Amino acid sequence: MTCSKKFMRNYKGFDAVDVHLADDGIVQAIGSGDIVINLFSVGRFTKDVGPVTFTKDGCYGEAKGTKWKIGAREGKGLFKLQMTPVAPEQANAAKSSGCQGGTKSYLWHLRLGHIGHDGLNCIVTKNIGIGIDISSVKKWDVCEGCALGKQTRVRFQSNTTARTSKLLK
């Protein structure tokens, strides 16, 4: 059922008929036809992907830690598909209190496995990252994890001068 004829193909009108809904509501059907909009199966989504939440303004689903706006309300009980990711505010505005850099770019440097300046710049230019300020990269102190990762050991001595010639000497 739909509230608009624009979503129907092969529409055939008929005299109004009362239709009883599951929530004890009654609506009048005035025609029938084939729905031509994309349908979304909530049952299939919850089974295969994750939970779905309905609010006053839309329908939201969660997949692999990302919240998606699946649809926007388009009438009584009808949602138009959107499938747009919803960026969580707390992740974008997070501050790293324990970091010596203290900037969002430094926090993303840590989150992305100590990615370099060029890697962060690439993410910013391709608009993949949200909330990364590449201008703050220059303000970083030396990252302790990166410095330890680049540390090398001194080789062991190849010859020693004080070698014993007899047992237990």
TrEMBL record:
InterPro entries: GAG-pre-integrase_dom, Retrotran_Ty1/copia-like. It holds the Pfam family gag_pre-integrs. Coiled coil: none annotated. Residues 77-151 form the GAG-pre-integrase domain. This is GAG-pre-integrase domain-containing protein.
